[in-house]
Every structure is written in C-alpha cells, then in structure tokens.
Amino acid sequence: MKGMVRGLAIFDKEHRLIVCNNLYREIFDLPDELTTSGATFADIIAHHVSRERRLDAKGDRALQQRRINEHLTALSEGKPFQQTRYLKSGRIILLSSQPLPDGGWVDIQEDVTAERQAEKKIEWLAEHDALTGLYNRVHFRDELQSVLASGRALAVLWIDIDDFKGINDAFGQPVGDALLKSVARRLSKVVRKSDVLARLAGDEFALIRVGPIAREEVEHLAQRLLSAIAADQRLLGRKLHVTGSLSIALAPEHGANADEILKNADLALHRAKISGRGGYEIYDPQGDYACGRAKRLDIDMKVALKKKQFELHYQPIVDVATRGVSSFEALIRWRHPERGLIPPADFIPFAEESGWIVEIGKWALGRACKDAAAWPPGIKVSVNLSSVQFEKGDLYGAVSEALAESGLVPGRLELEITESVLLRDHPKTHELLHRFRSFGVKILLDDFGTAYGSLSYLRSFPFDKLKIDRSFVRDCVGVNGRDCAAIIQSIAELAKRLRMTSIAEGVETAEQLAMVTKAGCEEVQGFYFSRPVPIGEIGATISRCREILSSTVQTSA
Ligand code: C2E
Ligand code: MG
Ligand code: MG
Fold this sequence. Notes:
TIM Barrel, about 550 residues, eight-stranded mixed beta barrel, single chain, Beta-Lactamase, Alpha-Beta Plaits, 3 domains, alpha/beta, binds ligand C2E, binds magnesium ion
C-alpha cells in the first residue's frame, strides 16, 4: 500500500463502477460485489453510509439519498465535488469527485486523519499548555483582562514550586515534567469548574477565582492548594517531598488592570519565597517591596555590564541539504564572580522587567556581529531579541551600528523573535521588522507553536524562517509521538507553502533527527550536533557537525 495514498474509482455515465483500486476497497471496507465493475453507485453509497459515524438523526436511507443527490447534482453541473466523511473507525476521509467528459467521473478518497488531528491540536495549543493540559499564559491573561474589564471582583492565586530547578537538575527532566503534570492534576482537584487554572511558565501556576471573596475564604483556598502539592509525590519510581509557595492579589483592591495585578502578585510571591518554603503571602499595598532580591539584582546587573561579565556562546544550526553549518545562534551567559556561569533563563526575565535588556541586547548584537565577521562567509549568526527591545531604546540604531562597526553583510544576520514580540503588538514592531528585512537582515520566528495564537502571527509578517519549538521534538518519540510528528510535519509543510525555512530545535538523538528530516524540516539545531560553545570552539564545531552529518547520512543510507 505504500506509495499509493489515495482510494480511486471510476464510474460511467450510467452511475456504474468501471474500476477501483485496493485502497478504495479498504477505506470503506467494501465487499467484493461492490468492487466489481457494474456495481451501482447507489449501492456503494449505501455501504459508505453504513460505515460513517452518524452525525445525522434521520435514517440511513434519507442520508443515502441526500449524499447521492448532492454528488450527482454537482457532477451534472460539471463541477468537482468535495466532502469530508467521518468513519466509525475514527478515520477522516476527504472525498472528491472530478467529472469526466463522457458523463462519468473519478472518485478520489484521501485519508486526512493525521492532518485534521494535527490542525485540531494546533488550535488547542493556542490556549493550552501542551505538557499539563491546563490553560496557558495567554489564555490566562485574556481571561483576567476580560473579568477585570467587566468590573467584577476576583482573586488571583499564584503558585510556584519551591526549588523546582534543583529537582530538575538532580533527578532529570523526565522527573521534572512528571512533577509538573502531577501538580497540575492535584491543583485541578481543588479548584472549581468556574475557576481558570493555568500554567504560566516553567513551574508557575495561577488561578483566577471570579467574584467577591472574603480574606478567610481566599486564605483557606491558598492552604488547600498548598497542601495538595505538598502531599508526598511518587514520580517515576522516586519519592519526592515537594512544597510550593503562593501569593494572592485581589481586584479591585490591588490593581485595576492585568499588569498591575500580576506585578503585585509577583512581588508578594518573592516575599513568600524569602519567608521560607510552603508559605503564602497576600499582597500588601503598604509593603516595602523595593528592597531585597530585586534591588540586589539591579546593582549586580549594572556591575556586570560595566565589568563585561556577559559572554556569548554559539550553537550551530545545520542545513540538512548542504550538510554543513548554516548559522550559529548566539546565546548569552553571565559569568558571575560568585555564582559562576548563569544561564539566560535566570536573568533575562529580570533584565526585561528592569529595562537592562536594552543595553544587554545592544551589547549582544555588537558582539555577535563582530564575532561572525571572522567566520567563513557562508555562515550566518542568529541573535535573540526581546520584546522590550522593540519598545524601549533604539533597536534600529543598535542593529545598524552592529552591522556598520563589524562590516558584516546584513544578509548574514538573523534576528530571532518570539511570538511574545508580536503579542504585545507595539506600533513600532512591524515597522522595525520591515525595515530590517528591507536591507537584507533575516527575521526568524522562534519557539513556534508554544504558548500563543501561533497561526495568526504567520499572517502578520513575512518571516524568513520558522523555528519549531523544542517541546514538539522532545515528545516526538514515545506515547504522544505520532501527534507531535504530525504537528512538526504540518508546520514544516505550512512553512514551505509560505516560503519560509523550517528549523527543528532541540534535536538530541539520531532518532529525532531522522524524524524531523522526514517531516521536511530543512534546518536542525540541538545537542545531537553540539551544545552552545564558546567562541574559541567555532572552527572545531563546524568540522564536527560535518562529520556527524556525513556519518548520519551514511548509516541511514
Ligand atoms: P532559545 O532562543 O529558544 O534558545 C535555545 C535554547 O535551547 C538554548 O538555551 C539552548 O542551549 C537550548 N537547547 C539547544 N539545543 C537543545 C537540545 O538539544 N536540548 C535541550 N534540552 N536544550 C537545547 P539557553 O542558552 O539556556 O537559552 C535559553 C533562552 O534564553 C533562549 O531560548 C532565548 O530565548 C534566551 N536568550 C539567550 N540569549 C539571549 C539574548 O542574547 N537575548 C535575549 N533577549 N534572549 C536570549
Ligand atoms: Mg532563539
Ligand atoms: Mg527556541
């Protein structure tokens, strides 16, 4: 059956079957007498209807007659005919008919089950977090905003797992993921149907309870949520003792809009964390939140810029067709004198909140362009941009200056933005992106398909490249493997149609590499080729990637 992906049948003008192929028999499980020439179209349709999932309350006969009429009317007008059929077996079949000049027609049946499921999944992902199935940050914010706009009172409870990073590092990511899922399940049991429960990011969960709520009641809810998490967790054969910290902000007392409520809940959460594990804190409008962690970090960052403590590491992105390195992604690290090498996830969010990202980002652009100017001319450099850089500071100036000072050809610079940049919908954003593109800089959409209304963003700007989020690649083997592989394939196809290059990130194994290449991804990034490396290892990394590509290709040939 391989290679033959469509069921085909030809009918004559008397509505009798001339010939059909095996797949045509197989899809609707047609008996022999309905696949021999001369079988009537009406009998075949009657059989088809018996195999369909009944969406129709009327009897089979009425449905059969309707199907026949629709089909024949379209064909008699010389028009092609197309409809989707949902079978009891779960398969989804796209049926199309093409009229033939002699009055007969060709019936084509195509199994579109995988595509339709992937489309549904992409829609679902726009509002949900793929790992836990809870709502995602975007949906949470939308809900929060719409409740606030309606003038109703509400409480936001923000929950963070204590030392999640430590657990993840000590037991590995599978245990970390299992913990997040388990926490999601446990929290779901405590909440009401009308509550909005979401995973905002990493190990952060949050809940909106709509309606006026008394202090004692909200505190009682906080305690129940915390005890739900704290009960001993058995995960993948390990017993863990887990606790969470929680903060509460109430509307209208603690803020009139979503940003204010979330900011205040965040401040209270820091306070809860500092006070020790497993506790909760209600936002206090009179509280002094300006000291402590935030202030210390602020000073540290100023020093870091001055003392040049930031450095860029580079991770290769390989081109499957040319079997070489296409570009290097610049990934920032902070070499802290006491805390060692700090990954971006631990300081970029703060840098964005405090505005330091503008200066850090400008530095990264300059450094990356200078470094890349010394590489072989075919190799590009990708620099990550934060949404804050589009709103504050002079991003246009930073990019043009970086190019001018390094002498790097603009076509060798790629700017990576995430959906959050477009989500904020700042008036300058599109104009800036178009200006960069007009002088040859490539624009890449990073972490595609995760948290936001991804598909709509593809229409809003003509991206050059689309980087499929690594969560899909991670899950493409194992139980959910088929779904993820189907999603990757759909995104890669979509990218191709929109003339964008698709990149798969987070490829760690040969198996994943084979999967994403088969799915049509043109470029690949991940630990399988190389972790991010310091500038001194660029040359060796280029050669190593070539070796890996040629040996992978040889073994799979
Ligand atoms: P990103 O842009 O999606 O970068 C890819 C991240 O995935 C990097 O983490 C990289 O080390 C990691 N990664 C790559 N391949 C694999 C793999 O096979 N398996 C796994 N598990 N991980 C892989 P990193 O360096 O920690 O960076 C995290 C994020 O920090 C980046 O995500 C980016 O959003 C941000 N970031 C890094 N540098 C900058 C910067 O200069 N400016 C801004 N605004 N953000 C930056
Ligand atoms: Mg990136
Ligand atoms: Mg990414």
